Amino acid sequence: MIEWLTATNHKKIGILYIVSTLAFFVVASLLAGLIRAQLARPENTLLDAHQYNQVFTLHGTAMIFLVIAPFGIGLANYLVPLQIGAPDMAFPRLNAIGVWLFILGGLTVFAGLAAYGGAAAAGWTAYAPLSELTEGTGAGQDLWFVGLLLVSVSTILTSINLLVTIFLFRAPGMTMWRIPIFTWEIAATAVLVLMAFPPLAAVFAMVLIDRHLGGHFFDPAYGGNPILYQHLFWFFGHPEVYVMILPYFGIVTEIVATFSRKPVFGYVGMVLSAFAIAGLSLGVWAHHMFTTGAVSNPFFAAVSFLIAIPTGVKFVNWIGTMWKGSIELSTAMLFCIGFMLNFLIGGITGVMIASPPIDYAAHDTYFIVQHFHYTIGGGSMFALFGALFFWFPKIFGVRLDERMGKWTFALLFAGFNATFLPMAFMGLEGMARRVYTYPPIGHLALLNGIASFGALVMGVGTALFFINVVAAVRRRVPVPPNPWDGYSLEWLTASPPPEFNFHELPPIRSRIPAWDR
Amino acid sequence: MKTFVGLFAASALFGIALAVAYWFVAHEEATGAALLGCMAAALVFTAGYAVVAERSADLDGDDPNEPLERVAGEELGIFTTRSAWPILVASCSLLTLAGTLWSPALAVAAGIALILCCWRLGAESARV
Predict the structure, then answer these.
(1) How far is B109 from chain A (nearest CA, A)?
(2) Which of A292, A345, B86, B124 has a CB 3.0–4.6 Å from the CB of A96, allowing a cystine?
(3) Which of A8, A288, A509 should be substituted to probe chain B, the one whose Cβ sees the most B Cβ atoms within 10 Å?
(4) Count of domains observed in chain A
(5) What digits encode the pLDDT tens for the residues A245-284?
């Protein structure tokens, strides 16, 4: 226990990140189950309005701040030094501070459940002045802000560490244009974090000043401006979507190339598109604010449309990598194919709502919920499972069962689409998001029933995954260093790797050092 | 290292272009222009630092044909494998923040503990 509490080695910290994000994932999934149970039929009374507000707030918060984004960062902590041939991260102690700030911050958010008045209930966006009304949102909301302030500082510290490591700690011969795409995507993510997270920390501090120290940043009665909160929040919030997706683009690229037995097609295009996405994402925040009438809708619509171009480049390159490859449909590869199909739907609906006239109609409806879950749930979450199946042997030295893995994929893919595709139609029928119940009109009862059944199927798939993990750890069948015939440097060391990663560094003369041998 | 400089220089130019474009399109909306301006300034600062740092950088990783034998035994520094101070720094940070909201006495006590932990952490880093 003490060994883990005081660990500074990047691999142990990476494992701490991965295990804690999976624990938060289980809690957030149970909360999602509660949401779907409440909405399974019209005028349900399982939860009251305030309980429902707490449940969907904690679900969204956990999935965004405590699962999807930090899993990518945590996996990077584990993999980046291995992929570039470094013995550890540049600043091991700073790395340890980052992981503990993250874990303590996450627990602080959930500690709100024990607070008088319950947990935070103002949604994952915590819009002011709603989140400043202390009679409606008590200490639980404060704990939410405190917890996420720590998480945001943690993310900034880890991003600095990752950037320094990538730029300065590469092994001899590992030039920037030879590092794996996953590491490149992490570099782009880290730059994005450094641009986007400071405004988040600032706006959370401003709300806490308003709530406790008599400030009035967002109170119009005293000259404050609620739109300012939205600006600062979404200046973080939209890049955050890409913080949640860029690492997963990297994961998909690595897995697709490995299981197509071909080097990445369009390597330079992959790198440039990552930075193009990162750059453009910093100029689109106010497409979340079209309906305020307080921003330049044409500007933000135009920049939002542009993001589709570099994202399309990535799709072309993945297909190009698979084209005429010797494709092996392993579980990890299936999750990547699922990622592409789901993310395509999320991306196309994203282009639709980047158009202000459509956004005015779809704003705050279930259409938006569908779009968002297709990008982050159907996209990132599928890549997350792909990463777990792919790198589990490297990290833990044992392999997950492929047959159970394929069942997990099938259940998650079917369940996910059954849950979220009906939401597009609910949105078109005008069902508002964040309502705790709804009347039995139109097809809402049928659509919600299908969605809730789909969530149940996803729950079974997720449970099967954890059974697989427990079974693999109990079986303890050792794996060779390179069980998938991967091409990048981490596959040339033992599974799991020694303390400082490599007993002896192999020569690096190309982008595929493991295939050069 | 040149890639690093180019990356941030290109990002800085992009940031400036975006801020200027936004100013022309929506100059009456000051918040957005200010945010983009700050973003561009941060990128310019980083790019400027990168240009200065690049002059003195001589990284083994930048040479595509660097022989491993040449760097064998090179001093990379010592990577510590354990330290008790990071978790204490994180815990004190949480308590200081919570104390600021609910208990000044806790804030002061935790703040002092935080400073001491950071000091010990720095001292330990200087040794190992």
Answers:
(1) 18
(2) B86
(3) A8
(4) 1
(5) 999 999 999 999 999 999 999 999 999 999 999 989 988 9
